[in-house]
Amino acid sequence: MIWRFRFSFIIFLLFFVSVIARLFYWQIVKAEELSALGESQYGQKIKTFPDRGEIRTSDNFPVATNRLSFLIFANPKEVKDKDNIAKVLSPFLETDSASISADLSLNRFWVPLKQNINNETKEKIEAMMLPGIGFEQKAVRFYPEASMAAHLLGFVGKDNTGEDKGYFGLEGYYDRQLRGKEAIAIQVHDAFNRPILSKMNKDSTEVEGRTLILNINRSIQFLLEKKLKEGMERYGAVGAMASILDPKSGNVLAIASFPSFDQRNFSEYDPLLYKNPFITNLYEPGSTFKALIMALALDAKAVKPETKCTICSGPITIGDYQIKTWNDKYFENINMIDVIRHSDNTGMVFAGQTLGLEKMLSYLKKFGIGDLTGIDLEGEVAPEIRPESSWYPIDLATASFGQGISVTPIELLVAFSAIGNDGKRMEPHVVSKIITGSGRVIEIKPKVVDAPIKSETAKMMTEILVNAVNLGEAKWTRLKGYRIAGKTGTAQIPIEGHYDPNKTIASFIGFAPADNPKFSMLIIIDRPTKSIYGSETAAPIFFDIAKDLFAYYKIQPTE
Amino acid sequence: MKKSNLFLSAVIFTIIFLSVVQVVISNRLSTSGIELSKLNEQIKSYKKENYILSEKLLIATSLTKIASNASRIGFVDKSEHVYLNTSLPLAVKR
Predict the structure, then answer these.
(1) What pLDDT, in 10s, does the model give residues A317-344?
(2) Chain B: nearest CA to A67, how far in angstroms?
(3) A514 touches A421 (CB < 8 A)
(4) What secondary structure does DSSP assign to A439-502, as a single string?
(5) ipTM over cut 0.85
(6) How large is the average pLDDT for residues A112-134?
(7) Contacts of B83 in chain A (CB under 8 A)
(8) With an 8 Å Cβ cutoff, are A146 and B62 in contact?
(9) C-alpha dist (Å) from residue A119 to A51, A75, A198, A330
(10) Residue B29 touches partner A, C-beta closer than 8 Å
């Protein structure tokens, strides 16, 4: 009898084990295959397009973000009274009814009628419950401050696959970070097309675009653009550009150029306007460059502030050329402090020649002239300085007062700012932090690139520049009560082998307060017509902006 | 004998119990898709509302709009800043 029980037990056990084995086979071994088969039958691939990351100013206001936009479409097969519906839609879509009617008459299942409809219009049309009319929603780029900071931000266009892509400025430089990555999720549905819980294929937090937090101060940016545009119009100039940095950190507080464009409708503007001229345009800086050359000469101990110029009693002849001062006034035995104060070209030639070409080129390299500054904007250029062997004596002479050498405005401002930062040159940064989709913060810290001059030289040069502001050609417009270090510039424009006698690039560069600079600023006015001089155009704009900056930063007068 | 019966009963009971539990859980899970769908729709609707409200808020608080409104209602640029005296000395000689 016992053997019957045992036999039955073994049979049941075998049956049980075979069921387990079969279950193991289907649920473990074949799991993936069956799951895929199920997904293909009942699953639906959902592409989730990430929102493009925001760009926020230092006060956390998004100057580039996203908003909802709708595309209105029609299914012509379902639209019965086409003419009537076209007439109804025409005022909402701001399109003539004949054009809508033509679209509705097409032999298709899906016809787009108009893009970029706002939510209000969409709701009004939806309320009418027109048969065969539907909406697709998507997020589009939105700039709450309208066309402010267009050159800085750049714009979002399409690439050759039709996907959104950033061009120029921050949208271009940080495109990959802002874009994020689209995710594909498989959603399994039952027979009634209701979703069954299913996990996402990818971690959804990884796909969102990253947010940029800028060093740009929104109020200062607004102020700079307003004053620069007013100044450009007041002086009848072709263009104007300016930037404000924090010399201690290299943080870019504001940057603006005119003429500009509206990044919301970029396609309506000349593509030549898209580039930010502050980082892409080359110009001969003129007298603003004297501050750098004099700083080099002082640092190399080629000259001292009290050194007297022995060749400054009249024009200087070099080869076939004659070098004159801007106003044809000459000061015999002028010292270096007054060379800067009077913006004396002959005095600068003396300083340059005493310094020597080799040292000048070596120092200029340390100041970053001829190299990219590394600013985080798309499109920066940097013309290389010619090799020493291709320089002639006249080149050395003219370079000493900022002619015959080309720089970008950002190069000059970054180099000049080193004088206000104890001789240390900082890398300029527009972006201060990047925030990932998961909330991780990536900080971009200030970076010292080089130390072209010693701290003592920087202090000396600062005093010389303060003296230039107080007693130089721009003294009529300076801000009383404040110590501002600065230099005017009136650069001639080279055209086909000679200099245009009537047109100039007028500029003013400076930092303040001189003893503990809070900002450095370069103003460039391109071909002003009311006056060609920097002291009468760029300087007043500089001081006007500086006045507001002092109030903004609550900096009291010290004198 | 008794022990093997007990063991067999326990195994069979466990199998039946786990099968019933699996059926109950699968059943509840299968209908949660409807809730998931509803929640997804709610999330979409809140996101859309967020977008619309954000857009209105950002335009209203933009410096461009504020400056335009200020100009429209008669605000003008300040001409000169007025500075009060700086801090008083701690002790004054009389």
Answers:
(1) 998 999 999 888 999 999 999 999 999 9
(2) 6
(3) no
(4) S-EEE----EEE--S-HHHHHHHHHHHHHHHHHSTTGGGSPTTS--EEEEEEEEEEETTEEEEE
(5) no
(6) 89
(7) 481, 556-557
(8) yes
(9) 18, 21, 32, 70
(10) yes
